[in-house]
Design a protein that fits this description.
It is a single chain. By secondary structure, this protein is mostly helical. 77% of the residues lie in helices and 0% in strands. Helix 5 (108-118) crosses helix 6 (124-131) and helix 6 (124-131) packs across helix 7. It is globular, with a radius of gyration of 18 Å. The two termini are 30 Å apart.
Length: 158
């Protein structure tokens, strides 16, 4: 199923107008499909992958629309000093610590590819050039890192 990756990214790039956004959606789609194939066989993997990716594009668009519709009046500057906001900060800090723990479990190359993509925003080709590995290996490392982190976060949070 990995051989559909570049085709899917091209397809999504034309829809989203951004290769980076397309790669992010493709990663998420692959991750969801991989999680699903752990529990059951998918009869038409390419079609399922594309449907999953398109659903993610729709979700992304809806989130963007909601963000655009929110009034700035709902942001109360004093809110940061109230209990719920502090609790959310603590929860976020705990999740970040768990994410760091999950990343520490990855091989160096896998973790480096993931961080260069997600934190530094480098393209797959830029990562491949920097690390001296193939672009397809970069793509596999990123998908594996995402799958591992999502699995570990679910385990630790339940």
């Amino acid at each position: 199923m990995e051989h559909y990756y570049r085709e899917l990214v091209s397809f999504l790039s034309s829809r989203l107008g951004s290769r980076q956004a397309a790669e992010d959606v493709a990663h998420d789609a692959y991750l969801r499909v991989l999680e699903r194939t752990d529990s059951q066989q998918i009869e038409h993997p390419r079609a399922f992958l594309y449907r999953t990716a398109l659903n993610l594009v729709v979700d992304r668009h809806r989130r963007h629309q909601v963000r655009q519709a929110e009034s700035l009046d709902v942001l109360d500057l004093d809110e940061q000093w109230h209990g719920p906001a502090l609790t959310l900060d603590m929860q976020r800090d705990q999740r970040l610590a768990l994410m760091q723990k999950a990343l520490d479990e990855l091989s160096g190359a896998c973790r480096d590819c993931f961080l260069l993509r997600k934190l530094d925003g480098l393209s797959h080709q830029q990562i491949a050039d920097r690390l001296g590995i193939s672009r397809s290996l970069v793509e596999k490392h990123i998908v594996n890192a995402m799958k591992h982190c999502r699995l570990r976060m679910r385990q630790w949070e339940s």
